[in-house]
User: Fold this.
Amino acid sequence: MAGWLFADLALVLFLIFLPSDVSREVPPTTTTTTTTTTTNPDAKPQEQGVVPKPIEILVNISGDSPTQNQVILALEAALEINNVSPDIKFGVIQVLAGIRGEDSLENRDSASNRASVVAKLLEKTASTDLSSQSRLKSWLYTLSGSDKKVQYPIMKMRLFPDNE
Assistant:
């Protein structure tokens, strides 16, 4: 059973990164220090695909059922605070919710469920926002989970830029 699960996971990851053209060069990076340290990969117009080095940001989203508008405003504010270029669009986002209280299985599950709600709202926004101003690719892929190093209501997001 474990072998089939591994094989299925390998196929899913293969399909996700199939359209990516990951070069052997390491993309140049710049480091910006504000409240957190963020490494921003430069988008290279001559290369296509998802950049394998994510931009990590901390986003403050409180409540167990945030609205779509609340999530987008919090994401945009965090991107602005971390000086992420408005020209960068994202194709893959990993959402990790902070744990409320002590580190227990129940609290991790609760955080994972919160992250899943936020991830679904991001996907919904990406599929319905057809404007050229959108920071999210229409085919956005999200992952969700919890991070015991982050406390509620903070969420850690790993955003993978997509070169067009």
DSSP finds three helices and seven strands in the chain. Strands lie at 29-33, 37-41, 49-50, 55-60, 90-99, 136-151, 154-163. The two ends are 39 Å apart (CA to CA).
